[in-house]
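User: I'm new to structure prediction. If I give you an amino acid sequence, what do you actually give back? Let's try with this one:
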Amino acid sequence: SSLALLAIVTDRVAITPSLLPAYGAVSYLPFSLKPLYAYLSSSSSCSSRSRLHSQSSAHSVLLAVLLALAGLAFVGTDLCIPVNGVWQCFGLGFLRGVTAAWSQFLMNQGLIQ
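Assistant: Good question. You get back a string of structure tokens that encode the predicted 3D arrangement of the chain. For your 113 residues, that looks like this:
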């Protein structure tokens, strides 16, 4: 998948070599924001059994939404970015990063619990 995205970025969008490091930084920046996702994912510090169950089901719904958005962003990179659409490529790269990093966080949290 990374090779296919790189082909789109370098061939269709034609990002200049000077912008490739910035594209990589923008695409992977969301992975360093996992503490923010932890804060946004937690609704309360109360650990009662019913609260834990409702939080778990809320995380499952959020995970499903994030995975759907990740798929749409991946497909959107191929279908929606026009030729020379550098800024659209940066925006979808950031969206792909957020959805992938946040969903990874939620899956890891589910494994720990």
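You can read the tokens as a compact description of the fold. Here is one thing that stands out. Residues 44-49 have pLDDT under 50 and may be disordered.
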